[in-house]
Write a structure and sequence with these properties.
Two copies of one chain form a homodimer. In chain A, about 35% of the residues lie in helices and about 20% in strands. In chain A, the strands form five sheets. Chain A has a seven-stranded mixed sheet with strand order 8-7-17-18-19-16-20. A five-stranded mixed sheet of chain A has the order 1-13-12-11-15, with no helix packed on it. In chain A, strands 10-3-2-14-21 form a five-stranded parallel sheet, with helices on one face. Chain A is of the alpha/beta class. In chain A, a hairpin with a 2-residue loop joins β12 and β13. Chain A has three domains: about 180 residues, FAD/NAD(P)-binding domain; about 150 residues, Polyamine Oxidase, Chain A, domain 2 (Alpha-Beta Complex), CATH 3.90.660; about 100 residues, Guanine Nucleotide Dissociation Inhibitor, domain 1, CATH 1.10.405. At the A-B interface, α11 and α15 of A face α11 and α15 of B.
Chain lengths: ~450, ~450
């Protein structure tokens, strides 16, 4: 059992924890980071595919407005490149497979108009959301009392429009329209900027990728931590009586003045706190479930679809992989198709074996890209639902009633315990960029708290 | 660190755990029960008020249809008596205070007709619910995609009707109409029998009380367990590799063949399982929040309201104690008024100090019952939100999308781990009666599993 002393202990070495720790170090504050896994990056994870190349089985993209992630990557020397978008996209809709250019699929004009008016309405409603305190949004109670499904029934008029909007919900929240509060959807749109920024590739959150894989950014950023990063140390208990906090992990204990818990709220709620946390905070963590997603990839000799004039991007109303991307490395070799199982599909397929998932996903690829897609060299997937130290992805969503009754507990510190993680971010909540912002915010918060308490101790000694 | 060996370990000595353990013992199966607290009863708790008398600060009532609770009380020799209902009830509604007899308040006829038609609709819809598998209910997806708030907006027509129906939701679920799935409300109604059975005093779930307090039933039932009941043993980890399960608590470890986890799902989700539980089960426990309630009582020399011809039962649209009962002991001395802070009021007042709660609740009593009520001899309350080993009351509710996506995981055993607790009950879920039924169900399930595995071992030895 290794023992560590520090000014601040950080629980979790995802982007939030790493950034919090680096920022604190830069202020001359001594930090130790306890991470449950044997690696850094949290929901961001590279998977080697040979020849020194990787694919990302977790979060991977960066796009306009995600300035903190671009800045961190630049700082640690990781370059970006555009998500492969050349060529025509595919849409499988009502039994027909069509090719189209740009972001607007060539389907029924009434459906497109319907989706357009729904997005415009959502953007307009989202403008009224107070991202720092969504519960103070005008009419917050009414917006938080209904599911997005209920809103959609009243405001999207065509079955095709509902299908496409539902697909967007699944793609962004890894949940179904029935699961999420309308206010949460509006908050997320406001937190990103607008609806298109969430769903678009070029010009949106899926615009760019990282050379060497997104986890490389976390790995390089974590280098500054040196031996103050302790791996294989799942934190089980935080004792916060008096002026010293004990952070007790399976294989390590840290003694500190302040602790930053930088894991998703439902996992933060599983740590034993002594004394127990106030009920308001505890009930929050009972109401922030993680979404459900399985990220699936098939690897081919080469990206053969490019020669057919296809971008590799596709949407399908059948699925089960309803959203597909070309996820090949920057040099286009090997060819990688990426399909997402989200929401209901993820809940269903996480219980199936890998073989069944492979058949279903490779089957989708073959339907979209032809028989060559049926015979990948390798198939791999990652069900984040099964990951003990994440328990779902991309992030938490709030069901109805959550923001208005418990939202103020998401980042409010409790004594010497501070909270970070993308779920505490006002801007780009749920994204890597939000995780970084939360790390920066909590580092400033903790530094101020340490100064204040050392100043008051100095004062009382006089 | 005490070590225990048994065929079966039971986690939690609420009604579910106690009944499961007794039933298993009666089948000749060796059981050990690990309880986090220094007492039995879980959400059911007596509070002494002097002269050997008690009031209940947790679950307390029993009514028609709750046959298993009546039977257990009879078996252990605890008598019941009717909830005090003689005299006129009070309703505070839109600034006026009115007295009425029976269950129908004398307010606006249009409001009463509205509530009547809404209840009839709910009862009709509830008849279609499959209580063993609510996700198989016809049209389950649609019913589970909307909040009860959304249903109410379309199906209750008067503001007064909405207020009264909202009050029922708060009283039964300790949550707001915005929080709960319509399908969950319908399931609960079906699970109890009908809407009136949930909300009524005479003829409903609040009909009778227990002489000596409801916890006495648990305490007497637990006597059979003798030294196989281990208190002060919060279970932190369950290792379920191979044929022996290790159940590891702070001050004790039990080695067994099967384990019954008889704590509410969100708390069951906080135990560390090795190997980790399947994601489907884990995500369920992220989606079953506990309700919010604070039970508040004021104690007076005598139940003075009875002399004024009042029953002590009252409802108020102001509150914050919106539902009030005469909770005096069977001999009517001392006089006890009981008020509930539920849903939003509980969320707000659990963060206030006891003094503020006292002022608010005693203030309600004084408004309803006159100046004598303003000066109780004693005030006491219990915020179940703050209880580390319950974390809310009365029970879990399911938000939208919960039953249809995760309902099948509520009681499905995982290897050698079985689940009990009122949240796993098909009949009277959320009530003491449901807890008992779950204990009986799980005992049969575990006994069969033990027989099957010992038979297969005997077979393989041949």
């Amino acid at each position: 059992m290794a023992e560590h002393e520090a000014d601040v202990a950080v629980v979790g070495a995802g982007f939030a924890g790493i950034v919090a720790a680096r920022e604190l170090q830069r202020k001359g504050i001594d930090v130790v980071v306890l991470e449950a896994r044997d690696r850094v990056g949290g929901r961001v994870l590279n998977e080697p595919i040979g020849d020194g190349k990787v694919v990302e089985v977790g979060g991977q993209w960066v796009g306009p407005g995600q300035d903190r992630l671009y800045a961190l990557a630049r700082e640690v020397g990781v370059e970006t490149y555009p998500t492969h978008s050349e060529g025509e996209n595919l849409i499988e809709f009502r039994g027909a497979l069509k090719r189209y250019k740009g972001t607007i699929p060539r389907i029924n004009a009434a459906v497109l108009a319907d989706v357009g008016q729904a997005q415009a309405k959502l953007d307009r409603l989202a403008k009224r959301v107070d991202v720092e305190a969504p519960w103070r949004t005008p009419d917050a109670e009414r917006l938080d009392s209904q599911t997005f499904w209920s809103w959609m029934r009243r405001n999207v008029y065509t079955p095709g429009g509902r299908m496409l909007i539902e697909l967007s919900i699944e793609a962004v929240w890894a949940a179904e329209p029935a699961d999420v509060s309308l206010l949460h959807v509006l908050f997320y749109i406001a937190s990103a900027g607008n609806f298109d920024l969430l769903v678009d590739t070029g010009g949106g959150a899926q615009q760019d990728r990282f050379v060497g894989g997104s986890q490389l950014v976390a790995m390089k950023a974590a280098e500054d931590l040196g031996d103050r990063l302790v791996l294989d140390a799942p934190v089980r208990r935080i004792v916060h009586r008096g002026s010293t906090v004990s952070v007790i992990a399976d294989n390590a204990t840290a003694w500190c003045k302040r602790v930053v818990v930088a894991v998703p709220p439902p996992l933060a709620g599983r740590i034993a706190y002594d004394p127990p946390l106030p009920g308001h905070r505890d009930q929050l963590t009972q109401r922030m479930p993680m979404g459900a997603v399985i990220k699936c990839m098939a690897i081919y000799d080469e990206p053969f679809w490019r020669r057919d004039g296809l971008s590799g991007q596709a949407t399908s109303d059948v699925g089960p992989a309803k959203i597909v991307f070309d996820n090949s490395p920057p040099d286009g070799s090997p060819g990688v198709l990426l399909g997402f199982l989200e929401g209901k599909r993820a809940r269903e397929y996480t219980r199936a074996g890998e073989a069944e998932r492979r058949d279903a996903v490779v089957g989708t690829f073959a339907r979209l890209f032809g028989p060559k897609a049926a015979k990948p060299e390798r198939y791999l997937d990652k069900s984040w639902i099964e990951e003990e130290w994440t328990r779902g992805c991309y992030g938490c969503y709030l069901p109805t009633g959550g923001w208005t009754s418990y939202g103020d507990a998401i980042k409010a510190p409790i004594g010497r315990i501070h909270w970070a993680g993308t779920e505490t971010a006002s801007i780009w909540m749920g994204y890597i960029d939000g995780a970084i912002r939360s790390g920066e915010r909590v580092a400033a918060e903790v530094a101020t708290a340490l100064q204040t308490s050392s100043a008051s101790r100095a004062g009382s000694a006089v």
